[in-house]
Design a protein that fits this description.
This protein is about 30% helix and about 20% strand. With about 260 residues, it is of the alpha/beta class.
Length: about 260
């Protein structure tokens, strides 16, 4: 029975075999990797992944699709809203070390993310970054442009800062609308996200608040936004607010958050 895509789930199913093969090659799954796929849908990406992996865990919200997926003997199906899934609770696979001992292998997370909740999913996964080896996601190209944007560009914003603080990111593949059924009204792309090995240990909520205030009126000089906020916090350090938010590199936002965290009573 043909599955009809559901608009409320933002379903657009990948159907281009050439694009699918290119995505799998970019992910480069290896036997024994513990991989979790978000939104497997009709298993267009799932099947070639599991053929290389041997086993795959999938997170699927659509009940009808979850029933289909459970018929596959090499899949573990988690039927849930991905925003309610605690990725830190997935058991980590074990890998042999040079000494003969075993060490946990971190999760590899992949998926064709629903466009309507892609940003919340990215922020949700920040909570689990410590157990993640890498992430490969297909997203709206405009979102990926923002994720990888450099300072002093129109695409650079809150999403850029919050993700680049924690990941090295790369736009690895363009995916046109005709690669999907039904075709979305936007271009798509695939992003690779690799967690930084030793990121600055800043309080996530504090960094998020700083960046949100800074970009709240991005056309204005920050003295009108972040400058006032810093005064309210009685911040006595040095931070140039005679700039627009988009002119400030990620490292400076992180340094400011660290300084405020240290100064906090």
């Amino acid at each position: 029975m043909k599955h009809i895509p559901r608009k409320r789930f933002g379903q657009h199913f990948l159907a281009d075999r050439g694009i699918i093969d290119s995505i799998v090659d970019a992910i480069n799954p290896q036997p024994g990797d513990h991989m979790v796929e978000i939104g497997p849908g009709l298993a267009a990406l799932t099947q070639p992944l599991v053929e290389r992996l041997g086993h795959l865990t999938v997170v699927e919200l659509d009940r009808d699709l979850a029933v289909r997926l459970r018929q596959h003997p090499q899949l573990t199906v988690v039927e849930s809203d991905v925003l309610k899934v605690d990725f830190t609770q997935f058991p980590l696979a074990q890998a042999a070390t040079d000494s003969g001992a075993t060490a946990p292998k971190k999760l590899r997370v992949v998926g064709n993310l629903p466009y309507n909740i892609s940003t919340p999913i990215l922020f949700h996964l920040l909570d689990a970054v410590a157990v993640v080896q890498d992430q490969h996601f297909m997203l709206q190209k405009e979102v990926i442009d923002r994720m990888v944007a450099r300072p002093s560009t129109a695409a650079y914003g809150r999403l850029s800062v919050m993700l680049q603080w924690r990941y090295a990111m790369e736009n690895v593949l363009f995916v046109p609308p005709e690669s999907f059924d039904p075709p979305p009204r936007v271009d798509s792309a695939v992003v690779r996200m690799v967690p930084h090995v030793d990121p600055a240990a800043v309080p996530v909520a504090l960094l998020s608040e700083i960046v949100q205030v800074a970009f709240s009126q991005r056309r204005k000089i920050m003295r009108h936004t972040l400058g006032k906020w810093l005064t309210e916090k009685a911040y006595v350090g040095v931070f140039d607010t005679q700039r627009r938010a988009e002119e400030v590199p990620v490292a400076e936002y992180v340094a400011l958050a660290l300084a405020l965290a240290v100064a906090a009573p």
